Amino acid sequence: MSDKHSTLGGTKPAPAKPMPSVDDPFNARFWAGLRQGRLMLQTCMDCHAPRFPASRHCPHCHSESGDWREVDGHGVVESFCTFHKAYWPGFAADVPYSVVQVRMSNGVRFYSNLVGVDTSAIQMGMKVQAVFEPVDGSDVTLLKFKPMAEASP
Ligand SMILES: [Zn+2]
Fold first, then answer.
1. What is the Å distance from ligand 1's center to 138 Cα?
2. Ligand 1 centroid to residue 107 C-alpha, Å
């Protein structure tokens, strides 16, 4: 038996990546939405501002009202950086990888990764759309982004 993690002492499992707590009482609906392939955001029922992470009070008008709405998943890369060194063993196989700051069309910002594009092709202002990436062996689905398909002429 051999794989890329084989050692003289036997096989060693790949180092795990840190995982989010998906049953946090405020954000469980966000993570459940991702598992269903839907981007759900808590939205203020008074000023209608979406917010992430979910919270007891709206950061815009301080209202305690909030309900969950599905949003379109479209955004723009506002900033990014590319990691050439793995600061966490679980990411060693991904180097080089990029972390992007995406501003959604509704103003909410996420930090995530772009998939389906070489790190050298990432640019600020790139239009992206949400994709949903299940993590093997867990009940976690991560929010990632991919470049938005160009509209047909
Ligand atoms: Zn509000």
1. 34
2. 14
